[in-house]
Amino acid sequence: MDKEMFTKILIANRGEIACRIIQTAKKMGVKTVAVFSEADRNSLHVSLADEAIHIGPSPSIESYLVIDNIIQAALSSGAQAIHPGYGFLSENADFCRQCDANNLIFIGPPVEAILAMGSKSAAKNIMAKANVPLVPGYHGDDQNSATLKQSADDMGYPVLLKAAAGGGGKGMRAVYHSSEFDQALAAAKREAKNSFNDEIMLVEKYLQQPRHVEIQIFCDQHNNAVHLFERDCSLQRRHQKVIEEAPAPGMTEDLRQRMGAAAIRAATAIDYQGAGTVEFLLDSNGEFFFMEMNTRLQVEHPVTEMISGQDLVEWQLRVANGEPLPCTQDQLTLKGHAFEARIYAEDPEHDFLPSTGQLTELRSPLETNNVRIDSGVVEGDEVSVFYDPMIAKLVVWDLDRERALQHLTRALSDYKISGVTTNIPFLYNLASSQAFRNGDVNTGFIEEHDDEIFHRRQEDLGYAAPLAAQAILIAREESARDLAEQSNEPNSPWHLVNHWRVSNNSPQRLTVTIGTEQVKVITENSALPTNIKAVNDATGFNLFTPNGVFHCAETQPDLGLDQDQDSSGNLAAPLNGTVVTLLVDPGIPVTKGETLMVMEAMKMEHSIAAPSDGKVSEFFYQPGELVDGGAELLAFEHAET
Ligand code: ADP
To answer: Where are the domains of the chain?
Structure first.
């Protein structure tokens, strides 16, 4: 029978995950207490919660990581339970103990389970006993450098050194030759010492091009355990997840069942409770190896929610409350395909350096049944130096992978973010690359497809440049139209924008900058295909195409008549040039859009088109004549309507 649910929980976290937890708590009628640092005083999670308690200065070491402050906040607010989210104190055994000692329910596993999985080497020992296949390697207590090196020499190179206490890819070093071992070990140990104050090392066989496939599991206090299928998190940069998906492409039902069963064996071996993730490496032969278990909700849990139709935060609250799991294994079904892209304020072109600053503009894609956005920031917020610079998790779903992927690329191109550099173009290129579309993923994907993702290939320039030039011409036309709308000169031809093409379809020459390359293009002013989209930014625009996104700008403004024409109604020359040809006779009716004359300026030709049906009453210049910038070129009479 269902027990009475908590009435109030505290969320010991910030950002999108705090908002995400508040959302489910609200749905369940549970009151929420947010905690916040100085920098987060006005943040979204604070405004969404029923109460909020200040827990310290901006650095997380003085706020979100201070166990006492959080326990005190929980006690003073009357919360019965604490949800730790992910990161921060979520896998901290001391915190879990402090919750227990203060009669606060920790919404997570028992402390013993956290301890069992806290060390990658201890975890491997437990998993070996539970008959869960391990990545081959050394995870012994003897940490003598010679012993570690001998183990590497025995298993053969390449090997991967890992910090037992590791996380976030820190303290990891690949070693390709015996001769490099000692130096790599010293470096990995230094990093581990700095990050975790622990230099215990594991040596693993460095698998080549494996996939990262993890299983979401759930256990309750009544010996029930289920798995909620797998997620493929192979798209990584520096061993950090970038795009995750569920199910894993190419997964067979047989392999899913074997991996699911192994994950449940792993969880039951440590008397697990709550949400957990068992991470495996999957090789090209379909063999899988236990890597580690995360004893918390994962960042990428939404993809599992999308394909299973379950609310994992609700499950967490129910399990922590002592209720049985909401579903049995047989009741769980997998439907469709989901992706999550982690949108970051960072600069992929500069080694993914975090980008901080104010989100002066944050326009997100529309949320629908297919598009979900988990975010903890709104326009105007600051991406600060204090925390992870994630802006949002973009989650998409559809009945099959191909359609889900279309939602992903479309939604990415719908974002408009100013104030910080984002990884959106990088994500878009990943998502639109052919290999990813084929589901041909492995953990080395980004390095392998470097050229394609960062568009360093020459053939991409040839593809993008004409599209960029068209986008520029269209943008000019649009700005001319805007000008016309603002103008209050009733007789201005700019008012007749519906028919007035500032430049007609005769070829135009432009120089565009694509990335860092300059390309000369001759183009016509035709509409962009519907699958191409230009989104302006501070230095130009991003051109989203089926073959990736290109950052473009107009290198040398095409200083033609079309652009510099003022809105006073004069068809005036913007700069010094020469009349090339007159194409119609004065007094003879012309139709809107018809080319009236051609002028050359700055070595480029510019066509002057009829603003409406009507006639030229007089040309003020003849072919070959020089025209000063600003001079009126012709007089035009509009036809009676
Ligand atoms: P962390 O806890 O620091 O995130 P993990 O052990 O979870 O480290 O590994 C992170 C990623 O590193 C994996 O998803 C995988 O891409 C890569 N990796 C880890 N171990 C191996 C291995 N033995 N062989 C190849 N790649 C590995």
So the answer is: 8-107, 136-205, 213-453, 458-554, 571-638
160 lines ligand 1 (CB under 6 A): yes
Of 351, 367, 363, nearest to 535 (Cα)?
A: 363
| Ligand 1 contacts CB of residue 245 (under 6 A) | no
Contact call for residues 72 and 35 (beta carbons, < 8 A): no
CATH 3.30.450.20, domain 213-453, yes or no: no
DSSP state of 345: B
Convert the pLDDT of each residue in 237-249 to its tens digit.
988 999 999 999 9
Q: 213 vs 246, 272, 281, 480, CA distance in Å? A: 10, 20, 6, 52
According to DSSP, residue 502 is labeled: S
pLDDT at residue 501 in the model: 44
Say how many Å lie between the CA of residue 290 and the centre of ligand 1.
10
Report, as residue numbers or ranges, the catalytic residues. 296
Q: Are 532 and 545 in contact (CB under 8 A)?
A: yes
CA-based nearest residue to 410, from 518, 282, 537, 546: 546
122-125 contacts: CB < 8 A, separation 24 or more? 122/164, 123/292, 123/293, 124/202, 124/290
- Which strands form 604-609's sheet, in the order they lie side by side? 604-609, 595-601, 577-582, 626-627
Strands 614-619 and 632-638: antiparallel
Q: Give the CATH number of domain 8-107; options: 3.40.50.20, 3.60.15.10, 3.40.309.10, 3.40.50.300.
A: 3.40.50.20
Element (H, E) at 544: strand 540-545
Q: Among 612, 629, 614, 489, which residue's Cα sits nearest to residue 564?
A: 629
CATH 3.30.700 fits 458-554, yes or no: yes
Q: Is the CB of 236 under 6 A from ligand 1?
A: yes
Which residues sit opposite 579 in a β-bridge?
599
List the residue whose alpha carbon is closest to atom 21 of ligand 1: 206
Q: Is the CB–ligand 1 distance for residue 293 below 6 Å?
A: no
Rounded distance, CA 96 to CA 94, Å? Answer: 5
Domain 571-638 has CATH 3.40.50.150: no
pLDDT tens sequence across 170-213? 889 999 999 999 999 999 999 899 888 899 999 999 999 999 99
Question: What CATH number should be reported for the domain whose range is 136-205?
Answer: 3.30.1490.20
Residue 420's beta-bridge partner residues? none
- Taking the centre of ligand 1 as the mean of its atom positions, its distance from the CA of residue 161, in whole angstroms, is 10
- Range of weakest confidence among 32-46, 188-202, 563-577, 593-607: 563-577
Q: In Å, how far from its chain's centre is CA 305?
A: 18
- Tokens at residue 212, please? 């990262």
